[in-house]
Amino acid sequence: MYCLQWLLPIFLIPKPLNPALWFSHSMFMGFYLLSFLLERKPCTICALVFLAALFLICYSCWGNCFLYHCSDSPLPESAHDPGVVGT
Q1: Using alpha carbons only, what angle is made at residue 39 by residues 58 and 50, rounded to the nearest 5 degrees?
Q2: Do residues 44 and 67 touch, judged by C-beta distance below 8 A?
Q3: What span, in angstroms and rounded, lies between the C-alpha atoms of 1 and 55?
Q4: Which of 1, 9, 52, 79 could form a disulfide with 75 if both were Cys (CB 3.0 to 4.6 A apart)?
């Protein structure tokens, strides 16, 4: 489970408030995961635990899924602030 310590902080990285940056964020996280899996080659148990946690978080729309924005969940209040989003 040593290799899992490099995968778990991915769940703690917050999604940007600006909706225009969500695609860039998801692409960065996807490429990070792909490069991590190719370079470090984590054990099968760690990879399965991480993928199961990622699937459960994204499927339930409960947490901070970095792959996409759940359509049922509302945008944060600060996302409507012109100072954050820009004009």
Answers
A1: 25
A2: no
A3: 19
A4: 79
Largest CA distance in the chain: 46
Per DSSP, 27 falls in state H
Distance CA 65, CA 76 (A): 14
pLDDT in tens, 10-69: 878 887 777 788 888 888 888 988 888 888 888 888 888 888 888 888 787 765 676 666
CA angle 78, 16, 37 (to 5 degrees): 160
Region of 46 (left: φ > 0; alpha: ψ -120 to 50; beta: rest) is alpha
Inform me whether the pLDDT recorded for 81 exceeds 60. Answer: no
Q: Which residues contact 53 (CB under 8 A, 6 or more apart)?
A: 11
